[in-house]
Amino acid sequence: MRIVVAEDLYLLRDGMVRLLEAYGHQVVATATTGTETLQALLRHRPDVAVVDVRMPPTQSDEGLRAALAARRELPGLPVLILSQYVEQLYARELLADGSGGIGYFLKDSVFDADQFIDALERVAAGGTAMDPAVIAKLLSSGSSNRRLEQLTERERSVLSLMAEGLSNHAIGQRLFLSDGAISKYTTSMFGKLGITDDDNNNRRVLAVLAYLNNP
Amino acid sequence: MRHLGSWLARVGVGFVRACVVTVVSLLVPAVWAAAVALGIWWGAGNPWSWVAPFVLVCVGTLALSRPVCRMVRFLVARWTATVIPSGYRQTPQVTQLSTGYWWNGFSYERTSRDALLDQRWRVRWQDPANWRDLRFTAVAPLTAGVVASLPPAGVAAAALGLSQPAPSARLVGAFGLVVAFVSAPYAWRFVEPVAVRFLRPTPAMALADRVDELTAQRADATVAQAAEIRRIERDLHDGAQARLVSLGLSLATAEKLMETDPVQARALMREARAGATASLTELRDLVRGINPPVLNDRGLVDAVRALALDSPLEADVSADLRLRLDPPIESALYFGVAELLTNAVKHAQATRARISISRDTTTIVIDVEDDGRGGARERADGGLAGLRRRLAVFDGTVEITSPAGGPTLVRMMVPCESL
């Protein structure tokens, strides 16, 4: 895949580039500031971009703003946001347009390189990939709490893995259950929450996230 | 008839009050008069004839000035409900040191009684209020005293004049009686404006008080800051630093075992990775406690919104603008809201909360309301007291309304420059 990496710290940028190249991907451009990031995204139109939230000059949420601006120009441009902190507020902003192709992870998710690359590929394919920490927060926020009371423990764990962006098959592998069992849980879960079940995995994940994102 | 009755009552009450004001305000002039009389009585040529009256005047004036002011303040508060703050210096606590001696803020004394006595005299002697009290005792007889003495003087004139056979004297007496009757309901009232003007704390006293207040706040702030820095240092030392050391150890061992025992080396690598993740988590929590990222990125309103999202309560945030304040104030207010939301969950067992942030021309107002069981109390070492101290640094205030059974409303207010 053609990838743009936006990260201001040299060590991390370098490590990220090496990791991606080790997996056979091509880094077409790197950026170290918010404005550079926006330019690189619009010029190269990468298959997926890996963007850090906090960058110069203001050391605030430059990267996030650049990603959101680029996606306004090019709807659905796949962007994976990496940050030292995951904030529900930012997750909700990223998910607000509901078009998918969004990832939001803690930086240490890179430690598990296989899973990280897997998430990157999901985002590039127009899916979503959310850090478990983000999903845990979305699930436990006050309004969600009340609406999810009717779910069983097992259904909740299926829901949170689905919200992270995993397919039924991947969820089954994580929970050591068969695909058939998972689809049984998802059917009952969608019924209880009143979300329409969709055959397309990406659309289904987006529906779940939209449900959680709706305060 | 009833009108006449109520008017007579007012005349009676006014006459008594006028007499009281006259007596109180003429106490010090009476001492002076006594001293002059003493000097005349001793006659000239005797050195005592001027030394003793002089000493009497000085000591009498100094000793009487404060009681006279206290009395006037009491009378004004009692009769007109106008409370005039006295502004006298407060005596600080005396503390026993490890040596067994007592420190009273000025000197070391052997016993607490000596320390208290010494302190009382020093505070009393250095109090800037003394000058104000002296000024009032000089002004009062010439203003409130003169006016208040009209009814008693009129009655005295009537008593003297009407007992004389001469018609002119009787006329003067009758006139005195009329003056006394007409002025009685009003004459004493002049003491109020005079007291308000001359007995309130002077700018110098207000300044001295403010300096005391700021000194106390500075001490509080430095102590809190030092404790905070110690906590951060300890957390870093016991957490991330220790973990990084063990991480380096694991990696060094893995490097050694690469050739001989790749399985074991791989296990160590996995361990190192887990250690890195754990130390990152710790560092994140630490940084959140120092300066939350959203606060840095977006400012107070969005940071509070993020806080509300992360809270297990159903919390609504209404903020009427995207205001940016100075970072220290934002930080204090943010941690204040965080503290209150935590309390609402932990102590009040609330399910909903409402946070509103508004600003008028001179004040930022943040209301945090929950539907919990109320009964929030401020303890000396509790979170609410800490919040009050944190905001006091910016002259901010905290109002807590928390009846038993709820709901609890806490209002934080911080003054700010008008836009």
Word description of this protein:
The complex is a heterodimer of chains A (215) and B (419). With 215 residues, chain A is of the alpha/beta class. Chain A folds into two domains: 2-139, Rossmann fold (3-Layer(aba) Sandwich); 151-213, Winged helix-like DNA-binding domain superfamily/Winged helix DNA-binding domain (Arc Repressor Mutant, subunit A), CATH 1.10.10. In chain A, 55% of the residues lie in helices and 13% in strands. Chain A has eleven helices and six strands. Chain A starts with a strand and ends with a helix. A five-stranded mixed beta sheet of chain B has the order 4-5-6-8-7, with helices on one face. Chain B is 68% helix and 10% strand. With 419 residues, chain B is of the alpha+beta class. In chain B, strand 5 and strand 6 form a beta hairpin. In chain B, helix 3 (48-80) crosses helix 8 and helix 9 packs antiparallel against helix 10. Chain B has four domains: 2-87 and 131-199, no CATH class; 89-126; 204-290; 298-415, Heat Shock Protein 90 (2-Layer Sandwich). Chain A binds chain B through residues 53-54, 59-61, 84-85, 87-90, 92, 106-108, 111-112, 137, 140-143, 145-146, 215, and chain B through 273, 276-277, 280, 284, 287-288, 293-294, 296-298, 302, 305-306, 309-315, 351-352.
**What is the percentage of strand-forming residues of chain B?**
5-15%
Structural class of chain A: alpha/beta
Tally the helices of chain B: what do you get? 14
CATH class of the largest domain in chain A: Alpha Beta
- Give the chain pair forming the largest contact, with residue counts: A-B, 25 and 24 residues
Share of residues in strands of chain A: 5-15%
How many domains in all of chain B? 4
Helix content of chain A: 55-70%
EC number (chain B): 2.7.13.3
Organism (chain B): Micromonospora parathelypteridis
Transmembrane segments (chain B): 12-42, 48-65, 139-162, 168-188
Enzyme class (chain B): transferase
